[in-house]
Amino acid sequence: MGSYYINRTFFFDVHPPLGKMLIGLAGYLSGYDGTFPFQKPGDRYEQHNYMGMRGFCAFLGSCLVPFAYLTVLELSKSLPAALLTACILIFDTGCITLSQYILLDPILMFFLMGAVLSMVKCNACADRPFSASWWFWLSLTGVNLAGAMGVKFVGLFVVLLVGLNTIYDLWDLLGNLSLSLVMFGKHLLARVLCLILLPLALYTAVFAVHFTVLNKSGPGDGFFSSAFQSQLIGNNLHNVSIPEHLAYGSVITMKNLRMAGGYLHSHWHLYPEGVGARQQQVTAYLHKDLNNLWIIKKPDSDADLSDPSSPVEFVRHGDIIRLEHKETSRNLHSHQHEAPLTRKHFQVTGYGINGTGDSNDFWRIEVVGRKPGKLIKVLRSQVRLTHVATGCILGSSGKTLPKWGWEQVEVTCTPYLKDTPNSLWNFEDHINPKLPNISLDVLKPSFAEILLESHMVMIRGNSGLKPKDNEVTSKPWHWPINYQGLRFSGVNETDYRVYLLGNPVVWWLNLFTIGLYLLTAISTAVALKRGVQLSSELKELSRVVLRGGGQIALGWLLHYLPFFMMGRVLYFHHYFPAMLFSSMLTGITWDTLLKFFAGFLSPSTAARRVYGGGILALVLLIMYSFYLFHPLSYGMIGPMASDPSSPMAGLRWMDSWEF
Amino acid sequence: MLGFLKNPVVVTAEINVNLVALTVMGLISRLWGLSYPRAVVFDEVYYGQFVSLYMKRIFFVDDSGPPFGHMLLALGGYLGGFDGNFLWNRIGAEYSMNVPVWSLRLLPALAGALCIPLAYQILVELQFSHCAALGGALLILLENSLITQSRFMLLESILIFFILLAVLSYLKFYNLQRHSSFSASWWVWLLLTGVACSCAVGVKYMGLFTYMLLLAIAGLHFWHMLGNQNLSNVGGGWLFCSYPCLGDLSLKTCSVSLLCHFLARGLALIIIPVAMYLSFFYVHLTLLYRSGPHDQIMTSAFQASLEGGLARITQGQPLEVAYGSQITLRNVLGKPMQCWLHSHTNTYPIRYENGRGSSHQQQVTCYPFKDVNNWWIVKDPGMQQLVVSNPPRPVRHGHIVQLVHGITTRYLNTHDVAAPLSPHSQEVSCYIDYNVSMPAQNLWRVEIVNRETDTDVWKTILSEVRFVHVNTSAVLKLSGASLPEWGYRQLEVVGEKLSKGYHQSMVWNVEEHRYGKSQEQKEREVELHSPTQMDISKNLSFMAKFTELQWKILTLKNEDTEHKYSSSALDWITMDTNIAYWLHPTSGAQIHLLGNVLTWASANVAAVIYVCLSLWYLVRRRRKIYDIPEDAWQLWVSAGEICVGGWAVNYLPFFLMEKTLFLYHYLPALTFQILLIPIVLQHLSDYLCRSLLSKTMFRALIVAWFSSVYLVYCTFSPVTYGEPSLSVAELKDLRWKDSWNILIRKQ
Predict the structure, then answer these.
(1) CB–CB of A384/A366 below 8 Å?
(2) What residue of B is the nearest CA neighbor of A177?
């Protein structure tokens, strides 16, 4: 993806641009020239200079360890807890694998942990508000939030976490009667400034850079509206002038007005048997293609309108027209057969030979919000096409057709007469040699519009990533139990294989600890509620468990639960942000529990021995398991683990692992 | 002995006339002319089918919700002597004489009518004045949408009834809590809460939202109780034995411990609802024992437990699959349709359309219809014979078998050739020896997925089996794609090499089964054509059936259909949408789901006022400024928990749902929102109208507002009750919002 920035061509991706920009920057600085195609996993890099980009990601990935260490240290004030957390992250094979390659996840996690760390640090400075360090950490939180949001939308969850923490904080301040309302107002303003305005400004700036850098036309154009495309150098809408008003005989393309709607498209292939009438398919297609061209004709005459001598006749609002597909000379047609996917709509087909069809080929063209008789403008008019015979409206349902339709988008004729963007179209290309051209600069969209549109397109793209039927996909409940990994490279025995899978000992310890933490937290909370008298040491411990652990547990929940509600395709690596929180929770919980149980032993040396021994045992256990599983991330060659002769055979503890 | 006769026997009855009057008015408004129109109205067409199926005891699956609501509707039909013979095919169809319309519609209407006294009681239990309670109940009474929804064979009014009942019983329970814990009435209300919750969930899954709300409120109240130091734990610290410094908690003033409180709540609010929910399914499955239209959704085992259908065929099959058994293999997934492993004499084309080559061997597909070509014979690779020996040698988990196609006697085979439509998987064929250095690879290992031990026997219907190819470790799988013309559009079967875990498309079960007896191919063909016989019977346990049915209800996904009257959740607050329920075939009489506009608007205003005031109070209290007395604040908060909470939990989740939504989904939320109006009004008059003059003004305003609510109700009552019929001009006048779809007949 970084290549696109170096080549400055426009592209479309479901994630915001910051991560790719940073990778592109790293590549640029390390001398990568942006020529490698990055087509499919497993391609060799050959002579391309990729180490800079990998090194950058790996560096960010390794920053996670000190961040987590500092966060836990700040929350629990306990060195062993922080060391335990750091040790977990250092020796987790999943984290290692994920940060070794050119991926967005290490960058995301870097910003995410950065935000958490600076939030915690800022809380720690709460006793001297408005000091330099307080301002520093507060604004750093804002910067990191913007970074996390700018890499992937998952960053939203950490924004939520920081937001909740800030609300809690402010509520606390409000209850503090020694603080005047003016002071409270200052606190509020500072937070609004640093945690809302600053990130928003940075986030927009990222997009501004994105659109300035990418000013050449590229593969992502078709996803965007016509106005947007006119901004891109090399796009056929850039700086061109086309005839303004539509006339009979014009060759046009029609684009659906819904965000990320496609062009009206047809091709020689027929609808398969059993799907309505066996006539030519009509679809919506996101890319530019010759098959998107249609000719506007009068319903009755077949006169050759391209004859330069005939007078120009404009199309007017309310006219009955016929649309002929340029490549196949079939008419846009609809009839009372059910549409392929949306059963209650009518099917739209290409029908007729060389322009002669039947009365089902007639459409009434109407511009939204205009009076009959007006001319129709290219790009600016929002047009509705009503089928004359059945009264339905041409629309794109937004559903993807199966393989027979080349996974293009379904086009239907909807009998429900509502004006939604789905059933509105605009004319984009317009070729008519007989008409004078005008320039398109009037259309120039403002930056806010571009920003909004690109977000809509990204959101649509995200929700469009749906699993196909019969495909075995990763489910959120698989993740914490480390049920199944992700194959990074290599399938066969002879390949150099890397397999993304968490260190099972670490992950199962994390999972177990979450349950343990819940028990601890509940019993602590109940004890406090019952007014049990605690010694000062225990009071400190319960504060760590409830306040510090609570923050981290909330982070885990926020980064994990929303995935259960997502309809898009999910992957194992989506769990890693949550896993970071879970590891920190493990550090805090074990440290607290060991301290608590060591507290029973009266001689302080014995207590210290138990406590230290416990931590040491955990660290050693983790190190040993890393020794066992390290080939997963550093790569392995040889027979698959399902083969008993493989060195990894004994490590295949779950049938679902496939290394 | 007869001492009690010394005093006169006195019966004192206290009758709350308000309550009686409200009930009577409710009954009148909901039951008036109930059997009009004598035609199918809106979703009656949907629920009616199920009533008919109940009457005929035919099994069905409805993915819209659990069966309790359907059963209640069917109860109405049963009491009215409905025989189930009516074709529910179109809205507006006239009912025939055998349909007891009145009794079918009675239960929903009764439930709708009883909501009114319930609303009254709830407001009283929230400790608001009887005047406010009366007002709230009257608003519910005059709410056109609730009337319309209760007058037909629909489930919403029943759902709302149970929701309100649950809330009321919880409030009664909570108010008794203070002075008489563990008294008889305390228990009654607590248990009734659980029962009503489970009924609400049993009618529609929406009931779950209110159930969760009540659980949360109960949890919160219990949490407050924990802070009450007068209550003992069990034996002074059972709960907290892990805390050393606990010694001095020996307050034994109260006889009942926290633990008992906790257990009582757990029993009534969790265990009883779960048990009730299971019992609904138990009754459902007991009532419906005949096979019917939705059989094919269920597994073979389930189908075999129904009378008729598959059971007729499989009754008396041998249970254990043995070497020599003749079987049909059904794919467990059942998507895109149920189908059986199939082969026929046609071969794969030498070259596919895209130029890839095939093995040109005999096609193996998955075929959605019963056919003699679906029969396969299990063969022991070490022996030649295709009949069952005496005694039969059962096939166990891990055994290697060959599968021989019954009619063509070719062996099921897979090899390293790309499958026709899924090039990443292996082709599966029936092996033809072309002598082209492509050896037969026809050994399959039987793996029973749902085995209990590793030596389990492969059982008909019950066992779910994977076939793992011995040479390539590919798994026999239904890819779900349908083959082109040359494969007769049957479904493609492939060998999946990269089998990731468990997926139902790789699992098969034996459906029809018999022990093969014929040695000769000719005889065997005759045998294959003959129906299976012999006898053994087996029954699925209730829990197994329940789990399967529940799972199917939750996962069965109808393609989300667009409906003319479907709406988005955002339209509901302002009632920008309506639903036309019925139109008289000739006149302009029609019924719409259309609310009382004024009530909806006031409810919205009340909600906004409530939220703003609460925030204001909350912030001020935080700064230790107390605007209203503490007990008034407590009342205000608890009323909000119920009413605003009830509105939020019943409304907000719809924004996350992807199914088709209708205006009637909003009615439970609306009911809670309406209850908020009198609460806010009383609060305003009590605490914000300080002078006598402003209080009088406020009352006058309320009276004026109330009479306009009544006027709006009267204006819209023709489209609520469907009579009298209105003229075109009158109908046009009723169209207060442009987005409403009032049907006007063209002259």
Answers:
(1) yes
(2) B623
The pLDDT assigned to B382 comes to 82
The pLDDT of residue B685 is above 80: yes
Confidence class for position B613, pLDDT limits 50, 70, 90: very high
- Residues in B closer than 8 angstroms to A343, CB to CB, are 559, 561
- Find the mean pLDDT for residues A157-165: 93
Q: Give the number of other CB atoms < 10 A from CB of residue A175.
A: 12
Residues of B in contact with A483 (CB under 8 A): 501
Contact (Cβ atoms closer than 8 angstroms) between residue A58 and residue A100:
yes
Contact (CB<8Å) B245/A532? yes
Q: Which residues of B touch A273 (CB under 8 A)?
A: 489
Contact state of A529 with B562 under an 8 Å Cβ cutoff: no
Q: Which of B242, B244, B559 sits opposite A523 (nearest CB)?
A: B242
- pLDDT bin (cut points 50, 70, 90) of residue B246 is very low
Q: Contact at 8 Å (CB) between A476 and A560?
A: yes
Selecting from A469, A526, A538 the residue whose C-beta is nearest the C-beta of B226 gives A526
Task: Determine, for residues B245 and A526 on separate chains, whether the beta-carbon distance falls below 8 Å.
Answer: no
- Amino acid at site A424: L
- Nearest by CB to A532, which of B246, B500, B505? B246
Please give the model's pTM, rounded to 2 decimal places.
0.78
Cα separations in angstroms, B248 against A530, B244, B255, B528: 12, 11, 18, 82
Angle at which helices B130-141 and B17-31 cross, to 10°: 10
A588/A503 Cα distance (integer angstroms): 20
Alpha helices in B477-530 (DSSP H): 521-529
Task: For A368-403, write each residue's pLDDT tens digit.
Answer: 777 777 777 777 777 888 888 888 888 887 777 877
User: From CA A551, how far away is CA A588, in angstroms rounded?
Assistant: 11
Confirm or reject contact between A59 and chain B (CB < 8 A).
no
**Residue A567 forms contact with B (CB below 8 Å):** yes
* Buried b or exposed e, range A405-435, using 16+ CB within 10 angstroms: beebbbbbbbbbeeeeebbbbbbbbbebebb
Partnered with residue B405 across adjacent β-strands are B376
Question: Residue B61 corresponds to which tokens in the numbers above?
Answer: 């699956």
Three-class secondary structure assignment of A466-512: CCCCCCCCCCHHHCCCCCCCEEEECCCCCCCEEEECCCHHHHHHHHH
- Give the tens place of pLDDT for each residue, B539-595: 678 888 888 888 888 877 665 556 777 788 888 988 888 888 888 888 878 898 989
Pick the more confident residue, B191 or A380: B191
Chain-chain contact of A469 with B335 (C-beta, under 8 angstroms): yes
Rounded-to-integer distance, Cα A29 and Cα A51, Å: 11
pLDDT digits (tens, 9 = 90+) for A549-582: 999 999 999 999 988 887 777 888 889 999 999 9
* Residues B361/B413, Cβ–Cβ less than 8 Å: yes
- What pLDDT shows up at residue B135? 93
What is the DSSP code string of B264-307? HHHIIIIIHHHHHHHHHHHHHHHH--B--TTGGGS-HHHHHTSB
First to last CA, chain B: 84
**Which residues between 248 and 287 in chain A have a beta carbon less than 8 angstroms from any beta carbon of chain B?**
273-274
Residue B242 has pLDDT above 50, yes or no: no
Q: Residues in chain B whose beta carbon is closer than 8 A to a beta carbon of chain A? A: 223, 226-227, 229, 233, 239-240, 242-246, 248-249, 333, 335-336, 478-481, 489, 498, 500-501, 503, 505, 559, 561-564, 619, 622-624, 656, 658
Residues of A in contact with B248 (CB under 8 A): 533
Give the pLDDT mean for A93-98: 87
Q: Which residues in B lie closer than 8 A to residue A182 (C-beta atoms)?
A: none
- For residues A493 and A412, the model is more confident at A412
- B131 contacts: CB under 8 Å, gap ≥ 6: B682
